[in-house]
Amino acid sequence: MASKRLPILGACVVLAVVASRFVSVKKVLSSLRPKNVRFLTIDDKEFVETNQECQTDDLKYHVLMPFIHGAFTSNERYLPLLREIQSSCTKIGIRLDIAFGSFFYNVPNEAETGHILEAILKSAKKKGLKYDATFLAGHSMGGLLAIEKALPMAYDGLIMMGCSMWGVLTNHRSLASFPKPALTLLGERDGFLRPFKLAHDMDTLDEELSREGSDDNVMIQKKRNEMDIMKPVIILKEVNHMQAADDTVAEFQLKTGRHDFDSGITLEEARERMAEAVSNFMLVAVCRTQTGLSDRAAYISATETQLKQTQQTREMLRPFRELSSKSYQSKFIMEAQRSIANLEQDIDITPTIHALDEDFLYSKPFHSLVVANSDTTLTANIHVVAQDPILLHPKLPKAASQESPTFAIKGKSQDSFLQSFTKKGDPVSLRELNMLTMAKVLKEYVTEEQRVKYEKYGRKLEFLEDLLIKRPPEWVETPIQLTHEGNTTFVRSPYTQTPEAEFIPLKFRGMHYAKAMSPAQIYEWIVYDAFRNIPSSE
């Protein structure tokens, strides 16, 4: 990774995060905005550039955008992006004022954010400034803090860059239920936030559509377009996390194992893509509240561009969303039981999904024969719990874990079925199941470009023999094991089993408990994790 490095912040940074006691407001550089476009600062000073001409008569809408920077990243490092957003807004008829304040040791926090935003709004009122709309924007940690702060009536919308409502600080807030227009903007090459997290935001939007209960495809598409206009979720190709600032990751962040992915475009190109998405969202949101459109052509163009980007994002996330759907997960879980049994006859499988490990621990799978109309059906009731996603390495932060959960499956062994049915072959091992899943994902869900990239540059997965855990409670707590050596990651799936023997109580006989990599987990690896910096295992 070719990220530049910043000096390490000392222990005082940690103390600053805990203390969060006061607000330090910096004066804003006058180079932030074009001529006749005012930049409003919270210390009640305005600066006007003289090196760029601007026809103010062409600026139909006056918009304010308070901005909250990311953690450990000063406002100054965002100035080129903010300037680009203003320039992009000017081209489509928006005069944009941007306001921001500084945080102690550049660590945004709730208390200081509230004081800064209050000061910005008071300063605007004192100057007698009137805006057609006010959008609260933030990047990374700043975007997460902006979510709750954007709820009051003072704000007309929310702009989240490099973050998602489906996050740690937001307790998985639903994007669909958020009461205002909201733009979710993420880079495809973001190394701090997996693009797959945005699949949850799209899920909430689609779930809202499903509640409508309409069978009219035209009406459904119209409502989907409405959501994509007011709640656009956009992943920008080749853009990474820190290109919102200066493409620099701090030294101490690198030492924690966090890093960005290299971008295939220049920093200037990335800023232009982000700025265009932000300005289009603003124009669409502002115009939809107006009784008459000042520039219908600009509005239509912005709407069409935004819809195209959201459709591209839906297509980008489609494989992961399909592999993560409840129906596909159930299909994978049932196929795992069939593979372990490996019988000539089919099995009618009913999985019970548990919410808690404790409930799962005390569950017991069973199978039975059902006779109806001279037909005999083999049924199996198995138990499943979704556990924590795979942590790639103990030295990496939890945020680097996969998005997809690990499924712990309690099923029945092949031997338990053989009194009444015939085996097709030996039980399929978890290693073999992992290999079959890998082949299927590569063939059916990964694009040719992604496959070639993985095979040429990616860290390869190699599946080793299954890991036997003797005690079921210990198996429940044992994750899928990863070890790393060179450009290869070795995977071992834990399992436990009991023989079909008379000395074992009947209800404990013939058990086979397994944890295999799910298709969604393998997909994440192929298109994302294979390109992370992962230290070798000790």
How would you describe the overall organization of this protein?
With 538 residues, the protein is α/β, with parallel strands linked by helices. It is built from 15 helices and 18 strands. Strands 9, 10, 11, 12, 14, 17 and 18 form a 7-stranded mixed sheet that branches. A 6-stranded parallel sheet has the order 4-3-5-6-7-8, sandwiched between helices. Strand 3, helix 2 and strand 4 (94-99) form a beta-alpha-beta unit. Helix 9 (296-324) packs across helix 15. It starts with 10 loop residues before the first helix and ends in an 11-residue tail after the last helix. Mean pLDDT is 86; it is low at 1-54.
Task: Explain the layout of strands and helices.
Elements: H1 11-19, E1 39-40, E2 46-47, E3 61-68, H2 79-91, E4 94-99, H3 110-127, E5 133-139, H4 141-149, E6 157-161, E7 182-187, H5 198-210, H6 217-230, E8 233-236, H7 251-255, H8 267-287, H9 296-324, H10 326-341, E9 348-354, H11 357-361, E10 366-372, E11 375-387, E12 406-412, H12 430-444, H13 448-457, E13 460-463, E14 467-468, H14 472-477, E15 481-485, E16 488-492, E17 494-497, E18 511-514, H15 519-527
Parallel strand pairs: 3-4, 3-5, 5-6, 6-7, 7-8, 9-11, 13-16, 14-17
Antiparallel strand pairs: 1-2, 10-11, 11-12, 12-18, 15-16, 17-18
Helix pairs in contact: 2-8, 5-9, 8-9, 9-15, 12-15
